[in-house]
Amino acid sequence: MSEAMPEPGKTPRRDKITVEGVDKTFPTKKGEVHVLDGVNLTVREGEFLAIVGPSGCGKSTLLNCMAGFERASGGSIQVDGEEVTRPDPKRVFVFQETGIFPWYSVWDNVGFGLGQMPFEAKDEHVMKYIRLVGLEGFERSFPSELSGGMKQRVEFARALAVEPDVLFLDEPFGALDAFTRIEMRREIVRIWEKTGKTCILVTHDVSEALELADRVAIMTRRPATVHSVLDVDMPRPRDSDDPPFREMKDLIFQVLGVERRV
Amino acid sequence: MSHSQAPATWWRKFALGSLGFVVTIALWQVATWGNDITEVPGPWLTLQGLRELATDGVLWRNIAASVFRVAWGFCLAAGIGIPLGVWMGWNRDVVLFFNPTIQMMRPISPIAWIPFAVVIFGGANFMLAGRILFDASDSSAIFLIFLASFFPIVTATTSAVRSIELKYLRSAANFGVTGLGLFRRVILPAALPQILTGLRLALGIAWVVIVAAEMLGVTSGLGFQVNDSRNNLRMDYVAAAMVVIGLVGLALDMAMSNLEASALARRGMSRR
Ligand SMILES: Nc1ncnc2c1ncn2[C@@H]1O[C@H](COP(=O)(O)OP(=O)(O)O)[C@@H](O)[C@H]1O
Ligand SMILES: [Mg+2]
């Protein structure tokens, strides 16, 4: 990335995405399911925002609306002052169980969003992003030959290759084993610091949110609203055993109404 | 019940397969002991008949005729069935429009269509396009093969497209891939494994139907061979034709399964 980017956590940033009074209901056989109930949220340019909430509260639904995969039933979602009506390559979604295509090689997956381009230029571009996620040497491999963490890296590379402003991450580490998850969290922070993208991470894992994010938005149970947004003013890399970390974690669990100790 | 886990070694497969084959032949021999060619023939008479048919050359002509008709009927069914299935899988209104009719026609055996096939395609009032590509007498058999393979192909393709995971379609939409590119780069490859399975199933059914399809209006083909030999009371030729139908069917299935495996392997999706 060549463009200048604000130093994470320092410069005051402009608003990138504004979510105002968003409602979402799904029609089902048993009547309407009211999922989002007047969600308000602002995402700042270049920040790493985490959204936490209990399972099934509507985190994915909110992210899908922000990405343009679903239309909100009410309210407004704007990116750079423009209403979101459909998905856009400027804002790429990373899926929970990786959404890379099993019928394409790593190279073809990473180049998927690039469109028509001379081969040399495309190869250079694709290889740049394959290197960025540390997968050089695997460009001819197929997803079925890769581990879970490597597939996730391919998906990051595929997303970054179209040079988007925003990454939507829907529990991207949910399907990984504990060790790979730690490694991939470190990886996403590295990529974020290096590229300066606006990252919105949805997770039900409070520690994950606190380890990664500049700010954490807490969603309530269904029908969900954003209860509050906490600033996480801790230097990275963060240690989940530090007292401030533990205090914030307790606070979030309190808001969520969960007794943390078993 | 014991259920072995380890894959069988090749020699075990070969040994047990051959043994089963030999036992079957032996039982066949015992059951038909002393029969002549106007009764159910034994393996030896069948082999004799097979040799006569093969040296006569008529066997090869009949194999070629049957394979030709099955190829035509099957390719027409795939050519219409795959696009229709993709359309049905893609658009819910299209599936609502076609599906009740298709599911109702599906259980009707192609054999029940024979009277109509003869009426429609038997007469001289036959489509010109057909006459250029194949002989008019072939068309009723090709029609029946088409019917036999069309429904499994449409059904498999529809369900293949409908079951494409949402995240693949959303990824494509996210990167602005739509229209023909979406079809070529996402829908077809995602649906391909299930479509190939449907094609293989359809080819198996098509080949089973060939005997019935060649019962009327044709003077060649393995199905004709069965009927004609029966009329001449040459039961050894009937049995010989049956053996050949089995062998060709096996060969077709193996060819399809190889195609399936290589198509999937090229995409790095070979099972295991
Ligand atoms: N397409 C849909 N139709 C009906 N209900 C849905 C649909 N998508 C999500 N829901 C419901 O909305 C609620 C929130 O789902 P989701 O956003 O996936 O939750 P989360 O990601 O927070 O676990 C769930 O109760 C789910 O059943
Ligand atoms: Mg979710």
Number of strands of chain B: 0
End-to-end Cα distance of chain B, whole Å, is 26 Å
> Spans of chain B of 5+ residues with little confidence (pLDDT < 50)?
none
Q: What do we call the CATH homologous superfamily of one domain in chain A? A: P-loop containing nucleotide triphosphate hydrolases
Under CATH, the homologous superfamily of chain B reads: MetI-like
Largest pleated sheet of chain A? 6 strands, mixed
- Biggest interface, chains and residue tallies: A-B, 27 and 17 residues
Order of helices and strands of chain B: HHHHHHHHHHH
**Tally of contiguous helical segments of chain B:** 11
Q: Can you give the mean pLDDT of chain A? A: 91
- Portion of residues in beta strands of chain B equals under 5%
Characterize the biggest β-sheet of chain B.
none
Structural class of chain B: mainly alpha
Query: Would you identify the regions of chain A where 5 or more consecutive residues have pLDDT less than 50?
Result: none
CATH class of chain B: Mainly Alpha
Helix content of chain A: 25-40%
Rg calc of chain A: 19 Å
**CATH architecture name of one domain in chain A:** 3-Layer(aba) Sandwich
Counting copies of identical and different chains, the oligomeric state is heterodimer
Protein name (chain B): Bicarbonate transport system permease protein CmpB
Keywords (chain B): Cell membrane, Membrane, Transmembrane, Transmembrane helix, Transport
Main location (chain B): membrane
InterPro entries (chain B): MetI-like, MetI-like_sf
